[in-house]
Amino acid sequence: MSASPSPALDLDTLYRESHVAGALEALERELVGLVPVKTRVREIAALLVVDKLRRSVGLEAGAPSLHMSFTGNPGTGKTTVALRMAEILHALGYSRKGHLVAVTRDDLVGQYIGHTAPKTKEVLKRAMGGVLFIDEAYYLYRPENERDYGQEAIEILLQVVENQREDLVVILAGYKDRMDRFFSSNPGMASRIAHHIDFPDYDERELLAIAGLMLDNMKYRLDAGGEAALREYIALRKTQPHFANARSIRNALDRARLRQAKRLFEQRGTPLTREALMAITAADIRASRVFKNKEKIA
Fold it and tell me: For 59-105, how does the pLDDT look when each residue is reduced to its tens digit (9 = 90+)?
């Protein structure tokens, strides 16, 4: 007598009921572009959904390694993706709390003997059950300073990412070239990072779309001249030092809002419409020193 076939398993229902779809949809709404990043996040989510289904029928293969490295320039969405990843892990039961604790070197490394271990352990205690996001992680390693205590923090982290990986996911983030050097200098850490995700810079079209989303969220809009001015601003700003992708765009819009408020305030006594209160004009954009720097170069 042949064995009866096992019952069919409903992967789609598990996916919908886990709320993973909501986290992925939020990621799509919040971030323009970044197709390779979103593809990788969806692959990880798919792995976790299938793994959970396998576990439900006794096909356990050990918890998948989930520690990650996010590399890219500032303002490319690394923190936002980390937040959504924390939600996905919690939705599928791979983290108890689903929270994100974001830190830098200063939160982990002390300035004198005996200071680093308690600082690092306190951060790890807060992060347990969720995701620990360490920005500019390469600053933990400073071999040129023999009295630096960053290596002590790294050693504590290594113990935790290996021994408590079922209760904590660590995401290390920073510039790609510096992270590559960090991993080559700390092979123990590199061997424990399963997912390396590179975040590309945004192009000018994507940055303009990001500006549109930001303005929508703040209940502002660009008039026709303002959109043309912002497009030119983005092209110029990308060529200048310290450009930080979406972060620089947000800063530019905040300054444009200040100029708009000053312009409207100087017109007090004249009735204002709702449209006028929302409109960012070419003048609000072109008052930026980015355009003045262009004139100096010319």
Answer: 877 778 899 999 999 999 999 999 999 999 998 888 899 899 999 99
Beta partners for residue 101, in sequence order = 132
For residue 121, how many C-alpha atoms fall within 13 Å in the half-sphere facing its CB?
A: 6
**231 vs 233: CA distance, rounded Å:** 5
Cβ atoms of residues 132 and 123 within 8 Å: yes
Residues 220 and 280: beta-carbon distance below 8 Å: yes
268 alpha carbon, distance to own chain's centre: 41
Beta strands 195-199; 68-72: pairing state: parallel
Which tens digit of pLDDT belongs to each residue from 252-285? 999 999 999 999 999 888 889 999 999 999 999 9
For helices 204-218 and 246-266, the axis angle rounded to 10 degrees is 50
